[in-house]
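hiii so my PI (J.) wants the whole complex modelled not just the main chain, which honestly fair. so below is everything: two entries, each one labled with what it is. i double checked the lines twice but i was tired so who knows lol
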Amino acid sequence: MNDNNLTQVWVYLSASPLFGLSMTLIAYGLAQRLYVYAKGNPLLNPVVTAVALLIALLLATGMPYKNYFDGAQFVHFLLGPATVALAIPLYRQFGKLKQLWLPVLVALLAGVTIGGVSAVGIAWLLGADTQTLLSLAPKSVTAPVAMGIAERIGGIPSLTAVLVVTTGIIGAVLGTRVFDLLGIRDDSVRGIAMGVAAHGIGTARAFQVSAEMGAFAGLAMALSAFTASLILPWLVDLLLQHAA
Amino acid sequence: MSPNFLNGITILLVYQLVGEVSARLLQLPVPGPVVGMVLLFITLLLRGGLEKTLDTASSALLSHLSLLFVPAGVGVIVHFHRIGNEWLPITVALLLGTVITLAATALIMLGVSHLLGKRGGGHE
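here's the output for the full assembly
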């Protein structure tokens, strides 16, 4: 094979969605294996490893993100039906939810508000610009919904996605330590807090602790996705009016 | 692809479609897929059961939820410049904000449960 052939192959690959799509699946497969090999160390979260591998690949080949996304969009698209699918765990936990509805409701409203206000407030105090603030507001909400909220309020959806994933990892790593420090042992409480603060990645961590904590975290993730899309746009308007 | 999975994913897509269309027509403040989630949840409550097909498709999607974040995560490459410029506010907001949210949510839920427990004579 000479250089000319190689160039032709690369011209084909860089224009076809096949490359971005298959590289996404391969990178995730490798990342998943590494995560299992490291016995589920939260720092080796598969999303982080896969993203790092793919960024290295794009930088090495000089392929623009747009060309990569032409292929990866087929995976990205599934975030929509996955959000709809959250109705199923919600339905399964409905019995438990009915017993605890008032504490859960208050914790959700407070948690979603505090999650948005604390992130925006801290970043504003430290001098972040408006688009960064708007992208930070939905950082505790599960990615597909957070990106939808960011788009509505004028943030940058792709930046929000990165901030959401980072938040999830922070929650997964620090969550149980924070609860231990505060002496909180009730798994329903720990699960709700984990789901509100650290969405799906926190939920995955909660399932490692106990089935009950995981179920409540999944429930909180689904409910806070709904709550956040109702109250965050309004809350951000209010905050920005005061900041300006 | 098993017929179960195909039926299930079709149901999820139809609910998303109805969600997207109604969110736009009624100018709802909620993203379309969330409207779809709520509609599906209400349907399940009304029907009082969960079809196998839907269960198959949703557990397939939800068990690989983290894969679906990867393409968006790679988008950080477009934002290197912004993140480099604002690394301090972003890092502190994420770290401190998440710890505050974890602690506050847990303490508030615990507080409300205690209040209700006392008033109701303590069911636990």
